[in-house]
Amino acid sequence: MISAGEAAAEQRDLAGLMDLVSSRYEDADGGSAVELSRNLRGYFIANQSVHLLTRIESIEFPYKDMARVRLTIGTLGRKAGDGDTFDLAADVQDVRLEMQLERGEWRVTRASWQPVVRA
Questions:
Q1: For residue 21, what is the DSSP state?
Q2: Predicted TM-score (pTM) of this structure
Q3: Cβ–Cβ < 8 Å for 87, 116
Q4: 2-115 architecture in CATH?
Q5: How far apart are CA 30 and CA 51, in angstroms?
Q6: Are 82 and 46 in contact (CB under 8 A)?
Q7: 23: how many CB neighbours lie within 10 A of its CB?
Q8: d(CA 60, CA 66)
Q9: 77 to 12, 67, 71, 88: CA distances (angstroms)
């Protein structure tokens, strides 16, 4: 699911990204799936090229139908070479996702993110 989300974002595929989001989605500020879709649309308009560097920090399964994922995501101004050099990233975020199994498919139900402070 994480790889599918990364691929959809890099292709600027809003529908593909939103297919991974539950209709019950809520972000840390109380935003809905509709608001997330609007924000992503604006991001894609402002950024004609999207390159991500994603590292899964942890995955927990507190219940068989629930997952908690912590990611580090860097948005790159240009495509990175081999390796995972976050030094090239223009913006690095610590992302926390909660996912639920809905009709056999994992969907994001909650998300929060904060900038990673780099020295």
A1: E
A2: 0.83
A3: no
A4: Roll (3.10)
A5: 27
A6: no
A7: 11
A8: 8
A9: 15, 31, 19, 8
